[in-house]
Write a structure and sequence with these properties.
The complex is a heterodimer. Chain A contains 15 helices and 14 strands. By secondary structure, chain A is of the alpha/beta class. Chain A has a 5-stranded parallel β-sheet with strand order 12-11-10-13-14, sandwiched between helices. In chain A, helix 9 links the parallel strand 7 and strand 8. In chain B, a hairpin with a 4-residue loop joins strand 9 (117-120) and strand 10 (125-129). The mean pLDDT of chain B is 90. Chain B has 5 helices and 10 strands. The chains are: A alpha/beta, B alpha/beta. Chain A binds chain B through residues 21, 24-25, 28-29, 31-33, 47-48, 53-55, 57-58, 60-61, 144, 162, 164-167, 170, and chain B through 13-14, 31, 36, 60-66, 68-69, 72-73, 85-89, 91-93, 95-96, 103.
């Protein structure tokens, strides 16, 4: 692989042993993939930081890096963790089991990330952070977290591969990643068009569309998608579904993606409204769930305002209802509409920051969850949770009246 | 005795020489299929101190941490050989854990069986001493 003089100096340890090791990992991965060189990155987003998945050995690795002087070289945000850091027992109301051991292990991980200079945003939607919205389209970044990767490439025009596990952190520590895949112009050009015949898709239908495309897409190039997504939630849930159900890093969505699509795609696949409805039938709520879950990926302030309007005058919710969002969106909501959080809490809605049901120790087999997130359905189902899918307005009705 | 060995060649991703008994797995996701605290695969076989031979890597990106965990708990394999291409999960994990890694070892799955003695040498050379033969390398070294 071609390396600049600056990169060779880093590898030789001139910027510290930890940065040298981080760059060695980036270079080795790049060589394995056949990358010719590295590319500077403007931002990194680190996923896989839950104690539940990386354990004591993961915590020790991060502490070891931090104590050897590893520091981020670019602005770096991080994914959610297993609980609300201000109120660790909050999600126990929804059935999660947060042990003192879990909090200790998670705190070690967060402490190490803080020492390395990461911004502890604890959200899977870094794409709503001002520091990310300000990056010019075309910038290379290194992100973990599949839904965020899809959003970065497809909506913001940023360029990132799926940098899972420790790879986004290694890129953060070096300010570089391998120049390969989604960083290359030609790899971003779609070949296959998916045309959705009719209708405006709410987030539940957008999610099953993501599942259908993930299952049928054969090219490693991004799919070109011609569908009418109802709103920002539908866009977010479509991309999250595509990221969960498959290995793609980008979808080229007509009218959304800043890059110019090809005039004539090589292949055209039509998806009918009936295809979507049939798929959705498998997931529709058929009995009253134990938990209603909103906020995978993390909700925006506006989603909570909408939920509050839908629940207006209903009294208390009958089904335990959980909304998860970032600390920043929570503050934004408090600032612009201070009554909403009080109203929702007063109705019995649990509002948790920094976390979500997927990364928390939640999910006794057999428990029933209704959600508007295909991604949450995909991952919680793997734990034996019985998950159903419906848009926000249906969830609000179910929360109050049951099914 | 050298003539009894089968020689394969691959691409070196993490340098290092090693010799050990083979444990062969067709497809492996480290996360969920290897216990880093015990070095055991889900089917009970141990990879600790062995040469792990993988047909193709797959699975969750958390696997890099699992590979590092094997080293952390003292349960690491001596080397990892991959028949197809190593994926970023495996490469990152092997560098972090300091485990020699050779990929693109054509024929690895058809030549190597559990219990064969496998020697990983510099330049991506992999020597295989079949268990069924009289294991000259072991005798020679003991």
């Amino acid at each position: 692989m071609y390396l600049t003089r600056a990169e060779e100096k880093i590898l030789a340890g001139e910027e510290g042993e930890a940065r040298a090791e981080a760059l060695r990992i980036i270079v080795k991965v790049g060589e394995a993939l056949g990358a010719e060189r590295l590319v500077p990155i403007a931002h990194a987003h680190v996923s896989g930081i839950s104690y539940g998945t990386i354990g004591d050995h993961g915590a020790s690795l991060l502490e070891d890096l931090a104590s050897r002087g590893a520091r981020v070289a670019v602005p770096t945000t991080v994914n959610p963790v297993g609980y609300d850091t201000e109120d660790p027992s909050l999600l126990e109301k929804a059935g999660a089991r947060i042990t003192p051991e879990f909090v200790r292990g998670q705190s070690r991980i967060l402490g190490a990330l803080r020492r390395m200079g990461a911004n502890l945003t604890l959200t899977c939607t870094p794409y709503y952070m001002p520091e990310v919205r300000g990056l010019p389209a075309g910038s290379s970044v290194a992100w973990g977290e599949s839904n965020a990767i899809l959003y970065a490439n497809s909506v913001l025009g940023l360029r990132t591969n799926r940098e899972g596990g420790p790879l986004a952190l290694m890129a953060a520590l070096t300010g570089r990643t391998y120049y390969w895949g989604m960083h290359l112009d030609e790899e971003r050009v779609p070949q296959t068009l998916y045309h959705v015949e009719e209708g405006i898709l709410d987030e539940a239908r957008a999610g099953v569309l993501g599942e259908i495309i993930a299952a049928s897409h054969r090219s490693r190039r991004p799919p070109l998608v011609d569908a009418r997504l109802r709103d920002e939630i539908a866009l977010r849930e479509f991309l999250a579904a595509l990221g969960a159900a498959g290995s793609l890093a980008m979808a080229h969505i007509q009218g959304v993606t800043p890059e110019k699509p090809p005039e004539k795609p090589e292949e055209r696949i039509t998806i009918s409204a009936q295809d979507l409805e049939e798929r959705l039938d498998k997931y529709r709520p058929t009995d009253t769930p134990d938990v209603v879950f909103i906020g995978c990926p993390h909700a925006q302030a506006g989603d909570l305002e909408r939920l509050a309007r839908l629940l207006l005058g209903a009294g208390r919710v009958r089904v335990r209802t959980v909304v998860t969002l970032s600390r920043r969106e929570y503050s934004r909501l408090l600032a612009r509409n201070p009554r909403v959080i009080g109203e929702l809490s007063g109705m019995g809605v649990v509002i948790a920051r920094d976390t979500c049901l997927i990364v928390s120790p939640f999910g006794q087999p057999g428990i029933r969850v209704a959600t508007n997130s295909y991604k949450a359905l995909f991952y919680l189902s793997k734990r034996g949770v019985k998950v159903s899918l419906a848009p926000l307005e249906d969830l609000a009705r179910i929360a109050v009246k049951g099914v | 005795m050298e003539s009894e060995a089968v020689s394969l060649k691959g691409r070196v991703l993490v340098e290092g020489n090693a010799v050990g008994e083979a444990v062969v797995v067709e497809a492996l996701s480290f996360y969920g299929e290897v216990n880093p605290k015990t070095g055991a695969l889900n089917d009970g076989r141990s990879i600790t101190g062995r040469v792990l031979v993988i047909g193709r890597p797959r699975g969750s990106t958390v696997g890099s941490y699992t590979i590092y965990g094997l080293r952390y708990y003292g349960k690491a394999p001596k080397a990892i050989i991959v028949e197809s291409d190593a994926d970023p999960i495996l490469v990152a994990g092997a560098v972090l854990a300091g485990i020699p890694l050779v990929d693109r070892v054509t024929g690895a799955l058809s030549v190597i069986s559990d219990g064969d003695l496998v020697e990983v040498l510099s330049g991506g050379i992999v020597r295989v001493y079949k268990r069924s033969s009289s294991s000259p390398l072991v005798r020679g070294r003991s």
